[in-house]
Amino acid sequence: GGNGVDPMLLERIEARAFGVLTAEIAARIEPTAAEITKRLRQIAVSCLVPNVALRPGFEAIHRDLVGLRGM
Q1: Which of 5, 31, 39, 66 has a CA positioned 20 to 30 A from the CA of residue 22?
Q2: Which of helix, strand or coil describes residue 23?
Q3: 20-32 b/e with 16+ CB inside 10 Å = b?
Q4: What is the pLDDT of residues 2-49, one digit of tens each?
């Protein structure tokens, strides 16, 4: 954009906030939903990697979340 911030980088920065939220949700899911909890934690971990460039974009996050349907 006009402010010099790379939109892809900004998306990866926002992915960290999503990772924090996802980890909080995973911590509150019923123990009987162990597989969903495990997958949500995996998503959270990928969103929280220190190297911003290695975090997933929201398209990849969406694919992972859609993969949880029917579990």
Answers
A1: 5
A2: helix
A3: eebbeebeeeeee
A4: 677 788 899 999 999 999 999 999 999 888 889 999 999 999 999 999
Query: What pLDDT does residue 71 have?
Result: 78
**If we measure between CA atoms, which residue out of 63, 25, 22 comes closest to residue 43?**
22
Distance, C-alpha 20 to centroid of its chain: 8
Q: Which amino acid is at 13?
A: I
Q: What gap in Å lies between CA 67 and CA 43, rounded to an integer?
A: 11
Stretch 49-69: mean pLDDT = 95
- How many Å apart are CA 54 and CA 65, to the nearest integer? 18
What's the rounded Cα separation, in Å, for the pair 38 and 27? 10
